[in-house]
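Onboarding guide, step 5: your first structure request.
Type a short instruction followed by the sequence, for example:

Predict the 3D structure of this protein.
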Amino acid sequence: MKDEQELEKPKHIAVALRYDPEQREIPDVVGKGAGDVADRILALAKVHGIPVRNDPDLLELLAGVQVGESIPEELYEVVAEVLTFLYRINDSMD
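The system replies with structure tokens like these:
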């Protein structure tokens, strides 16, 4: 029998980041949610052509950041790697 935490745990979560170096030096969390909210975040990303990266470990860390806050310093390097990956995808689509 599954325990209560496992039954209540959402199937998936999503975190949306914004990075505009002209406005802020550090990426910030602009949205996050689980279940239906995560589905909506992912759907909006698809509609707007925003690439999505599936990284469960990073997602777990970013889920602890409040919406409107900058990412913590210990995540700078890994988020920079993700942004580099996304920029490459964007360049290849042009």
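Each response can be followed by summary notes, for example: The chain has a mean pLDDT of 86.
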